[in-house]
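Hi L.,

You mentioned the student needs an example of a multi-chain input paired with its predicted structure. This one should do, with 1221 residues in total across all chains.
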Amino acid sequence: MELLIIPFVFALVAMIIPQKAVRGYALIGALISVVAGIVHAAGYSPSADFVSLMPECSERFFLNYGYDGIGLVMVLLTNVITFLILLSNYDNEAIASSKKFTALVFFMQFALLGVFLSLDGLLFYIFWELSLIPVFLIFLWFGAKGKKRALLQFFIYTFVGSLAMLFSLIYIRSLAPSFSIEDLVAVQLTTVSGLWVFGGFFIAFAVKIPLFPFHTWQPETYTKSPMAGTMLLGALMLKMALFGMIRWMIPLAPEALHCMTNVILLMGTIGVIYAAILAIRQNDIKTLFAYASVSHVGLIAAGIIVLSLDALTGAMVQIVNHSFVAVGLFLAADIIERRVGNRNLLELGGIATQAPKFAFWFAVIIFAGVSVPLTSGFIGEFLLIKGIYGYNWIFGVLTGTTLILACVYSFRAYQLSMFGPSKQFDFPDLTWAEWLSFFIIGIVVVFLGVYPQCLIDMVEPSLQKLIEIVTIK
Amino acid sequence: MVLATMLESGVSLEFYIILSTILFTIGVLGVLIRRNAIIILMCVELMLNAVNLLMAAFSTYHGTGDAQVFVFFIMVVAAAEATVGLSILVLLYRNRKTVDVGMFNKLKG
Amino acid sequence: MSVEQLLPLVLLLPLIGGFVNGVFGNKLPKTVIGSIATLLVAASFFLALSIFFQLDKAVEVKLFTIISLEGLNLDAKLLADNLSIWMTLIITGIGSLIHLFSMGYMSHDPGYRKFFTYLNLFIFSMLILVLGSNYFMLFFGWEGVGICSYLLIGFHYSDAQKGFLNGIAARKAFIMNRVGDLGLLIGLFLLLKQFGTLEYSEIAAIATADDFVNPTWMLFGITMCLFIGATGKSAQIPLFTWLPDAMAGPTPVSALIHAATMVTAGIFLTVRSNYLFELAPDTKTVMLYIGLATSLVAAFIALRQNDIKKVLAYSTVSQLGLLFVALGLGAYTAAMFHVTTHAFFKALLFLGSGSVIHAMSDEQDIRKMGGLKKYIPTTHWTFLIGTLAITGFPLLSGFYSKDEILGYAFAESIPLYLVLMFSVLLTAIYMFRMYFLVFHGEFRGSEEQKHHLHESPANMTVPLIILAVLSVFGGVLNLPGLFLHDQAHYMTHLFEHNVAGMDLIHMEHLPSSTILVLMAVAVISCLAVLLVSYQVYVKKRSLPKEDAQLTGWEKVSANKLYIDEIYNALFVRPVEWLSEKGYRFFEVAILNGIVFGIAKGFETTGEVVKKWQSGQVNWYVLWMISGIVGLIIYYLVKI
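Structure written out for the whole complex:
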């Protein structure tokens, strides 16, 4: 219960506290959420059943929410990433001291937690849509020039997708006694109606993930939005869709899988290669990272859909890894942009000599992004590619090229910005808040790279149950 | 009770139907033809009351009270609508110095 | 301490060194940083040595579980057997010498701390690679050394003229390695599919069992994938062009990573998996010819290179090709023997060239050197030993190890032997050419350089001397009957538990007269090249031509067979073209076009429909009422 209430209360209170205290208040609030998440995680023993958080008296309402291993991981991830977002923005005076911003981030956290915790179709949908509001407002109030067009595109695109999901939900609800996930999963669909239900969910998720060819809103949105918005989008909102695939789409309509697996796998694979190739020659560092993100999540989606235990586990590891890496990459991009006033790679260079700490941490993030061993990226991609390979070796090899292509664009971006003789601009090294953000990211990424088993233990029973559901149906 | 007496007194249901139809048609025509916003509002009220009358008549005819409940609802809504509508009109008048709906064509595409 | 306790320590010491230097190094003086790094690697070496002497059977130490899923168990587990400890000894032994050398070589470099941190991390990764007990650990180390290599090649990234090019070279190395890594990764998946495990011992047990049915294609696939991985890391055709470029790194790096240790990872992998390769003879054939071709091509290119490090780099590629020929012939022990001696003399040559470059104030062009023997005598003598060792001069280490491989080739087929011999001859030609051009004749550099010429400090010459001694006597490691009675080869005995198949020692069945003849041929050809080179470069004072004057084969050799250009045209340009055109004509024009086209469609529809919006309330009401009336009529008619 408190998981949801804490961010909500903090979002409300943020509007009335004095201006000077906002930054500290934000960090404390986020930290409390992190602690609450950790308390839940500490008391959790992995099993496939849901731990309900529903209050005793509320059975008449649709407030069925709770978590299993996957949900708990996502909750923890949300809380930590929210903390990181607030922390990494600490030095961005205009944003961090804004009450509106702080309130919106907490509100976003509330909505995201709602998505990850709902065990009820309608509740899920409500929170899903609710999460659009804060992100929309953050873009609107803090975005860069030319944001309106990008914003509208983003909003309409995702909204249309969500609408399709709503139809699917309503349809499947009409066949079930209630909106609760157990009832919805129990519904037996025919292949055709399964396809409709699946398709509705899929459109919503494909837009948000985003899968090729629904990704065009992403680069534009990423470049125009403020850093915090990009982080929220890249690190958390996309994960809602991936989570949605695991929690809702596949268990609800596995009847459609035999038609759709190959389609989604193909879309994911094309996305992996296509986005990576486009990223190679991008000169705007944010656009480049946006395409990199498309490439990475394409792989995750492809891994989820092949539905083997190793690929699903890999997907979970990679979801966590990608969130941290995304925050790191966009933080790095923002640091460069704020200090140099320019995002064009061709005009950057020589930063490493001026800011060695920044260069080091940026390199760590880049390495995690290209899935070097000892980072969680490697574990994630290893399991994902192994799973896809086990499903179909051609797709395995094709998605495996991400190992090569990711190096090409990541190292190009890194070298063009960091290496070479130092240029004219002055580049102060990291502040403590930025350093701490990078440090936390680095620790998590390396820890999960060396000992991913702690994460795997949490999610394995639920994933196994998922596979079971699909095989039974 | 008055209506009940009237029914008993031999005024048959048809008369009520015809009367409310006439009232309703007058209301519709008023809304369509007149351009004075106040008149239009009054015509809307007329339509509502026509419906009220019909409902009350049917209620008595069937001997159940359900429809009369709705009559009260409609009266409340009509009152609310009149207040809101009139206050909008006052504001419109302040803006345009007229209540001619022909002048309010800002919604033109 | 027992092996179980020592083994993790061997691995951890370099990591500790890297960690301490990396985190606290900015507060420490340079000598302390260098000493920490060097001493920890040396300590690791001595621990490994003590393991080596008390090891009587393979020991496995499980550290923790990395991934445990249904049907997939990957442990962080270490394995100590003769093969892995032998490699550990080479890595830490030569590694500590090179650390020592670097303390002098890098002493003026602002990135001193960073350098030693990376170097220690490299040793750590390399130890994971060789000490891991399964292919997953090997892959960890495999990629880890790739990263360290990347960092160290691009070490001087901020250099005003060459900084950017260094970065490009580093990137090229990493990407090419990654291509191989993908092959290896797929090999891992195939192994998992076939054997259900990645543990060496378990796979070996299954593959060498009597009732093992050989799935020919599967094993061909597995071994080919492993070999593709090896071509990346060990710089074989088609993935060899990164290694010469990798010489952009500081010279100790070239010595440690790109000559002695990392590039032999591919050999290690093959020897580790030899029981699989034995089951896939086709792969062995492929390996043989790829190795042969690499050996020839690299030797040919080396003939007309003028950068002292480039020559050595191509020589490394060529030697690695030779090693793959040995592996293709199934001569695993001979390959390990040559890996060992090659590590000695190639590290020596690289460090020697580093000493030369140091003396010449960072000049690498051999056309600007000459007559250096009287200025830097220690370097000269050790370099000479290295040169003689690599060319197979009698009684030096290279002579034994190379002859052993040549002997296997001879036993296989005589044409193969002749081609291989030709490659060996080329090696002698370019090595003597370089040696004479650098150390003999007149000094051709600038006055300023001449003024600065000096012998390197002791911490640079001591490693040279040690390596020179090893290069001279390294050959005795595998002499028959020296360490063991009844004429057995020491290393053959050492690796007998690691190496499968019984046909591996067939060279010993060659009649001893044949062996003597082969030796004589090798000796005579080496001496002949030595004499001819002496005549040409010392007596006649022949100098390399300027680039513009080169014609025919010389031009092709100097331009590296145009392979970089071909790769650019075949792979780099098309991908860049795809990226640019794909963005402009597909992403922006088509995909974005469709999205905005749909939006535009709605907009146009709106423009049309809005005409119905008259703005007159009465009309709206009329539409509404007609709608209602229409509905009523519809229902009335329907009934």
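You could point out the following to them. Residues 390 and 398 of chain C are 5 Å apart (CA to CA). DSSP finds 25 helices and two strands in chain C.

Best wishes,
N.
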